[in-house]
Amino acid sequence: GAVVSQHPSWVICKSGTSVKIECRSLDFQATTMFWYRQFPKQSLMLMATSNEGSKATYEQGVEKDKFLINHASLTLSTLTVTSAHPEDSSFYICSASTDVGYTFGSGTRLTVV
Amino acid sequence: GQQLNQSPQSMFIQEGEDVSMNCTSSSIFNTWLWYKQDPGEGPVLLIALYKAGELTSNGRLTAQFGITRKDSFLNISASIPSDVGIYFCAGLFTGTASKLTFGTGTRLQVTL
After folding, report:
1. What pLDDT score was predicted for residue A101?
2. Which chain A residue shows the shortest CA-CA distance from B4?
3. Is B94 touching A (CB cutoff 8 A)?
4. From the CA atom positions of chain A, what is the Rg in Å?
5. Which residue does chain B place closest to A57, by CA atoms?
């Protein structure tokens, strides 16, 4: 079945540094991937839609200069949290559309200290 | 962003009991998906529904796509401890921006 691999599974960084999260489709090509953020005990909130070869589409209220998305190939999308601050600490999850629905990565727990 | 109303918010049940949860929306969807999320993991697809009125089963799970296209329910029969987790519904209206809209989640606890 379609597998989406997300890396790293967790990361701790200092305030002011940048962190890159990778999302790979392992056995299929994904022209579109999605990035979500999930705070504790809350639902998934869509941050942006990542489009291969073009600019990402950001949801209202999401700062595109802070959350940089690159989708340079059909199997890889990256999310870079720039100048991270403690309030950016969250669970970030990517997903891709497949023929059986939307498949999700295993998530990345970001803690900014 | 928009969220779907999911109920109940949480459930505490005994092993062997049946569970029912539902999801309602003010907007119509042409696809409903049900996911389960374990702590520290991404959601895993349980059932996908593509047609109004559709009733689909996956083992002990049964889900239905409401006739009005604004709601869906998920039933779990004879619950077991590994059913513990958070269940999310998600609606999709395919078009130029095919984005999933998630429900608020139902947290299920199963006691022995």
Report:
1. 78
2. A43
3. no
4. 13
5. B97
